[in-house]
Amino acid sequence: MVKNLAALADGPVTVSGWVETVRDQKKVQFIVLRDESGAVQLVTPATRELVEDDPTSAAKLALTETISGLAHGSFVSVTGELKHDERVKLGGLEVKISALEVLSAANPETPIASDSSLDKRQDWRFLDLRNPKQNLIFKIQTTFLHAMREYWVDNDFIEIHTPKLMASASESRAELFEVEYFDTTAYLAQSPQFFKQMAQSAGFGKIFEVGPAFRADPSFTSRHATEFTSVDSEISWIDSHEDVMKLHEELIVAGFSAVKAKHGEAIKDLFDVEITVPATPFPRIPLAEAKQIIKERGYEVPRADDDMDPEGERQIAAYVRETYGHEFVFLTDYAASIRPFYHMRHADNPALTNSYDLIFNGVEISTGAQREHRVDVLEAQMRDKGMEPKELDFYLDFFRYGAPSHGGFGMGLARVLMLMLHESSIREVTYLFRGPTRLAP
Ligand code: AMO
User: Fold this and answer.
1) Taking the model in full, what pTM does it have?
2) Which residue from 227, 229, 231, 247 is spatially nearest to 239, judged by alpha carbons?
3) Within 13 Å and on the Cβ side, how many CA atoms surround 342?
4) Which residue's CA is minimally distant from atom 25 of ligand 1?
5) Binding-site sequence positions
6) Domains in the chain and their CATH numbers?
7) Distance 191 CA to ligand 1 centre (A)
8) Interface ipTM
9) Which terms in the Gene Ontology molecular function aspect does this entry carry (predicted)?
10) Taking CA atoms, which of 252, 263, 355, 365 is between 20 and 30 Å from 330?
C-alpha cells in the first residue's frame, strides 16, 4: 500500500494503484499514483527515440510510450527505487520507475470531473468515491459507528436485527412502500419501532440496532431519502425521556470523541471543519419555550400543528449556539397531537408527551421518547388518533403480559454525518442514495 512506503528504507519497491495524473514532459515523466491509503509520486526519465548502441533503449522507449498513453484512473503496478527526498511535496518521497504494468486500463474519457453536478456524480458513484474526501467520509462513518457499538457492548446492550418486511405500517400509514408478498401485501419497515419495543417485553433490557429504514417520501430535500440507515436504541426501567436523552448524549460523545481522535486532522484538511466533542448535558428546551424564544428573536413558526419547521430549527440552533456555545439541543415535550400514539403523555398534562427531537447544527437528527407501556392507555391513545386497536393486536400483545417502562430513539446516520462535516446534502455522505427519482446504481 502507498502509505507503507513512508516507513521503508530507500531501495527497490513494488506498488500498485490508480493513475491520478501524468505529467508528460519532454525529458521526464511524473505520475501521481493513488490507492485508498494515499498518493505517491513516480518519476522516470523519458526516452523519445531508439539509441542504437544502447540495448536497453527499446524497453525505455516502450515505458515512456506506455506512460504517455496512460488514462486517468488506470490501475497499474510499478516496480522501482524508493527514495526519500524532502524536496518532494507529496509525502517527501518518490519512486523511480524501472517497470510499469497496466493491470486494468481505464477508458480515456473520464465521465465526471470535480465540478460535475451531484446528480452526475451519483451516476458515477464508484468513481466519485475514489476521491479522498469521499473516502474519508466512510472511514469517519466506520469510526463513529464503531465507537457507539463499543459503548453499547461495554454497557451490556444486546444487538438486534428486526425484520424489514412487515405486515403493517411501523410508523404512520403515509410514506409506506408496498411489496407483493406471495398472495398478500407486505410493507417495508419505516422504523424498527414496534420490534425494538418488543425486545423490552422480551426481557432484553437494553438493545440497539443499526439497519435500513424505508420511507415512500416523495420530497427532494437535502435531508430526505427513501432508504436510510437508522441508528436505534431502546432501554427498559426508565423514569422518563430524560433517561433516554442521557443515553443519547453519551453515545454522541463517544462517537464524536473517536472521530476527532482518529480523523480530526484529516477532517480539518479536507473539509475545513473542526470537530467539537459536545459537552454534556446538552441543552434541553421544551418545544413551546423554544418557539417563544425564536418568536422573540423575530421568527414565528408558521405551522398551525405545533411542530417546528426547518427554519425554526435553524433559529433555535442559532440561539443555542449564542447562549450555550453548543451545537446540539434537545427540544422536548412535544404536543401529543403531533406525536405517534406510542409516546407516553405527561401524567399531569396529557396534551404533552415525554418526547424529544435532537437538533444538531440546525437540523433534526433524531426523535426519542418514553413509550406508553400500559396497554389500556395505549389502546385509548390509538383511538384518540383514529386508529383501531385491532389493527395492531400483535403489538398490543407485547404489553398484555407484563411490560417494563421503556423508551428509546431513532437517529438518521446520514444526517449526523452531513451536519458533522458541514456537507450540503445527505446524498454526499450516503454510499448509494435512494430518492424518488434515484434507484440506480
Ligand atoms: P422519525 O420518523 O423522526 O422517528 O425518524 C428518526 C430519524 O430518522 C431520520 N429520518 C430520515 N433520514 C433520511 N431520510 C428520511 N426520509 C428520514 N426520515 C427519518 C431522521 C429522524 O430524526 N420510530 C421513531 C424513532 C423513535 O422514537 O425511536 C422514528 O422513526 O434523522
Assistant:
1) 0.95
2) 247
3) 25
4) 410
5) 171, 215, 364, 367, 371, 412-415
6) 2-104 (2.40.50.140), 123-429 (3.30.930.10)
7) 8
8) 0.99
9) aspartate-tRNA ligase activity; ATP binding; RNA binding
10) 263
Type of residue at 432: L
- Contact indicator for 78, 14 with CB cutoff of 8 Å: yes
Local structure of residue 335 (DSSP, 8 states): B
- pLDDT of 217 higher than 90: yes
Report d(CA 325, CA 327) in Å as an integer: 7
Distance separating alpha carbons of residues 333 and 352, to the nearest angstrom:
6
Q: Is pLDDT above 90 for 101?
A: yes
Residue 305's pLDDT band, with cuts at 50, 70 and 90, is: confident
In a 10 Å sphere around its CB, with 0-12 CB exposed, 13-18 middle and 19+ buried, how is residue 441 labelled?
exposed
Count of beta carbons in the 10 Å neighbourhood of residue 299: 18
What is the Å distance from ligand 1's center to 217 Cα? 12
Q: What is the DSSP letter of 105?
A: P
Cell numbers for 292: 417563544
d(C-alpha 17, C-alpha 388), whole Å: 60
pLDDT digits (tens, 9 = 90+) for 423-438: 999 999 999 999 999 9
The H-assigned helical ranges of 155-240 are 193-201
